[in-house]
Batch of 4 targets.
Target 1
Amino acid sequence: MHKAGFINIIGSPNVGKSTLMNCLVGEKLSIITSKAQTTRHRILGIVNGDDFQLIFSDTPGIIKPSYELQSSMMDFVKSALDDADVLLYMVEIGEKSIKDSDAHKRIQASKIPTMILLNKIDLSSQDEITKEINIWSENYPKSEVYPISALNNFNTEKIINRIIELIPESPAYFPKDQLTDKPERFFVNEKLREKILLYYDKEIPYAVEVVTEEFKEEDSLIKIRSQILVERESQKGIIIGHKGVALKKIGTKARLDLEKFFNKKIYIELNVKVNKNWRSNDTQLKKFGYRG
C-alpha cells in the first residue's frame, strides 16, 4: 500500500511556517527572516519514503491585502485551503483564536483533517502550554492540537507520523528523487530576496522583485546573472550603495548560501533596474509568477 497527499501549512505572518517547512523537508527551501511577508509564493517541499510521499506546501502569512501583490499572495492561501489532504494551521503560544474570519469559519466546518500547531513552546511554561492546548481543543473540536517548536525540531517527528496515518492511499504525484516543484532560478531569486530582507529596512525589501535571467550550469561552476527590480530611482541607489558596496554584500552573502545549496562554485552577476509600481501592475505580477 502506497500513500500520498498534500499537506498545506497556513497561518499568520511570523508564526514560523517557513521554519517548520524546512524542518519537515530537511532542506532550506523557504527563506526565513524576522520580517512579515517574507514568503510570497506557494512553495512545495516533497518528502519520500518507501511507501509514502508527503507534499508540504508553505504559503504566505495571512494578511489583509493593501495592493495587488498582496491580493495575489492571499490567492495562494485560498488555494491551500481548498486542495489540502491535511491542513496544518500554525499559531504562536499566546494566540487564542484564528484571527482571519474566513480561515476560522472554514477550519471549524472543514471535513479535511486539520492539525493546529502551537509553535514557540520553548518560550512558555508547561502550565501555559497545557492551558492553551485546552483552549484550542475547545474552540476547534474537529482539529487535533499539537505543541511544537519548529526552531528546535520538537514534536515534528510526531507530526510527520500522524500525517502519514491521515493521508489517503495514492501513487506518488512526483518522481521519488524530486525535492520541490520550483526550478533552480526560483531559489536564486529567493536567496537574493532573503539577503535584501535581512540587510535593508522599511519599504525597500517589499518594493523588490528578483529575476534571474541566466542560469548556466557547468561541471563544477554555475554562472548566474540576476536583476533586482525596484519601484523608484531612490530605491535603486539604496540597493547599490556607495560605490556599489551594498550590492556587492548582497551578492557575496547569496553566493555563499547558493554554493551550499547547489554544492557547486557560483559566479553571480547582479544589476538593479527600476520597474515602477510593479506590485500593483497585473501584467507584471503575471510575469513574475504571482498570477496564472
Target 2
Amino acid sequence: MHIRPGKGVYVSSTHAWRFADQASLPDTYQMRFALEGFVARLGAHSIGDADIEWLEDNLAALQGAFADADLEEAAQFDFAFHMRIVVLAGNAAIESILRGSADIMKESQRLPYRRELVLSTFHEHAAIVEALKARDGERAGRAIEQHIVNAAQRVGVHFPVPHKA
C-alpha cells in the first residue's frame, strides 16, 4: 500500500498495469470518474427510446457474457456501454479523448473482473440504465461515478471523491 497526498491510497494489485508508461491506474480511474459522470448527466437529457433499448440489450448481453465466463466479450460489451453514454452526451472532445484511450479504458474495465464477483459490474450498469431511463441526469451521474469508484476499489485503488453540497 502507498499513499499519494491529495490523490489517495493505493493497494498494490497482483496484476501489473500494462499502461503504466502512459497513465497510472489511479489517474485513469480519476479521469473516468470526472468525465463519465459529466457525460452521464448530459446524456440523461438527450436519451431516446432507441438508446434505452440499446442499453438494455447491452446489459443483457453483458450478463450473458459473465454467465459464460467470457470476460473478453464482457469487456467489449462494457466498453460499448460506456461509450454509448459518452455519445449520448454529444461532446465530441470528450468522446475523442476516451476513444483515443480505448485500450486503457478497456483494461481499466477488465481488471476488476479478476478481483471480485463480476456481477457487481452488471448491477452497477443496471443502476445507471435505470437512472438514464428516468432521464435523471444527477442520479445517472452519481450512479456512473459510484460504479467507477467501486471498480477502482476492486483493484485496490482508493481515491478521494469530491462531495457535492
Target 3
Amino acid sequence: MGRLNKNTDFYNTLSPDYDLMVNSSAYINARKDILKKFIKRDYRFAADVGCGTGNDSIALALNGLQVIGFEPSEEMLHEAVKKAASYGCHVGYVNKPASEITKDYNHQFDFVISLGNTLANINPAELKKSLHRIHLIMKKGGTFLLQILNYRSLRKDNKRIVNVTESGGKIFFRFYDFLPGRLDFNILTADKENLKNHNLITTRLYEYTRSNMTELLKTAGFKSLKYYADFNHTPFNASYSKDLIITALK
C-alpha cells in the first residue's frame, strides 16, 4: 500500500504518462463515435467536467461542438492544451474543479459530460456542490452524461487489478486496495528495461452507488434519470455491471 497522495497531486504526477497509459489516439477515435450517440441535433455547446488531458473534450470537438474542459490538475491541463492544438481543435480549458466553476458559465451548455470515473475522485460534500454547479451551467433541456465504476461489483468479486498496459518503454499497473470503509487507487509505473526503476502513486476514491448518485442528482435538480451498464444502453445491474452510466436532464 502506497503513501496516500492528495488527488490533485496524484494527477499532476501522472500527467506526463497518462496518455501513454490509456493510448489516447485510439481512445479519442472510439470516444468520438460513442459520444455521437448522446449528442442531440440542436446541441452546440459542451462542457467536459474533470477533463484530464482532454481526450473526451477533443472527441466532443470532433463532433462539431464548442467545448470547455474543467480540470483541477494544472499539469493535466497543460497536456490537454498541447494535445488539442495537435488535433487542430479549439477547446477552452479552465483550471477549476466542478464545485468552483464560476457563475459566468451558468446556463451555457447543452451537453455536459463527466466520464472516466471522474466523480469517484470527489468526496461526498464536494460532490454535492459539484452536481449543483453542473446543473446551473446547463441550459434547460440539456443532458448530463456521467460514468463511474460500479464498486459494489468490483469489491464483491475482489477485482483489484484494473489494467496492465505497456507503452513508450514503460509498464503501467493499475490496481485497488479494498480496505474497510476505504478504497485506494494505485498506479505503479515501471521502466520495462529495468523494473527496479519504478514509481508508485496512490489516491483515495469514493464508492458511489446508483442510489447515492440518484439522490444527489435529484437534489441538484436533475430529472429523467436513466441508468446503463455501457454506452450501448445495456441496462445496469448493480450485482455485476462494471460501469454505471447515467443520463440526466435539466
Target 4
Amino acid sequence: MEIRHLKLVKSVAEEGSLTHAGKKLFLSQSALSHQLKELETILGTALFQRVNKKMLLTQAGVRVLKTATSVLLEIDKAKNDINRFVNGDGGSLRISTECYTCYHWLPPLLKSYHKDFPNVDVRIEAEGTRQPKQFLLDGKLDVAITSCLTEKEDNTNLQFFELFTDEMVLVVEKEHRFARMREVPPEELKHEHLICYTAPDELLDIFQRVLTPNNIKPKKVSKIQLTEAIVQMVKAGLGISVMARWAVKPQLKSQKLVAVPLANHALKRTWYAVTLKQNQPNYINCFIKHLLKHPIA
C-alpha cells in the first residue's frame, strides 16, 4: 500500500462516492477507480460495496481506513513538526552538562527562554554527561555545557561560547575542621574520606592536578555518580568532596555546606556552551543567547 491508496480509502469513505472523492483529491473518477482496483488487487479483497449509489466500507475496508486515519495523521504531524523546525519556531532542544547532574540554573533561564520559544521542548540528556563531545557529533545532543579545553582546541566541528570561569573547591559540612580554615594544604587530604564523581582518577581534576602529582592518597575514596548524592553524604559528615562552586551554589548560599580553597592550587576552569559548527535552528541559537545574557554561575 502507498500513501495515495490510504488517501483514496479515507476520502471515499468520507465522501461516499468516487466522484466526490475525486474532487477532493483533484483526480478524475476514472483515475480513482483505477487506483481502487489496484489496491483491491494487492489486498485480494473488496474494500467497498455499492449500496443505493453510495460506496460503503466492507470489513476489510474498515480495517484499511483505521490504518489510513492513523498513518495520514502521523504524516501531517511530522510535516507540521518539520515546518516548525525549518522555520525555527519549535522542536526539541537536548542539553547536557559535563560531569555534573545539577541544573539549578535551568528553571529561571527557561522562564525567560520560553517567552521567545514556547513550543520548544527542552530535554536533559543525562547519558550525554560523560561524553558531551561525542553525543554532539553523533547528533544525540544540541547543546553541551563543558569545561573540557581539549575539545575546543582539537575539534573543528564544534563551536564554543564562553560562559564563565569558576573554581574547584573543597566542599565540607559546616562543622568540619576545614570549615574554619581559609585554605587547606593538600597534604591534609591524607586524613580524609574523599567523595568524588564516578570516573577514572586521571579524568578528575583533584587527582590529575593535585593528588597524583604530589603523591597524596586520601584515607578513603568513594565514587558516586550523582551530584545530589555526593552533597547529601557531605552534609551528613560522611566525607568531603572537591567540586566546582557552580555545582553546589544553592547549598553554599543556604550555608548548609562550606567551600574552602586548596592552598597553592587555583583549580579554575572555564565553562563553555558547545554546539555543532553548522547552521542551527533559531531556537538553538536563541538558547545560546540566553545562556550568554543570563549568567548561570
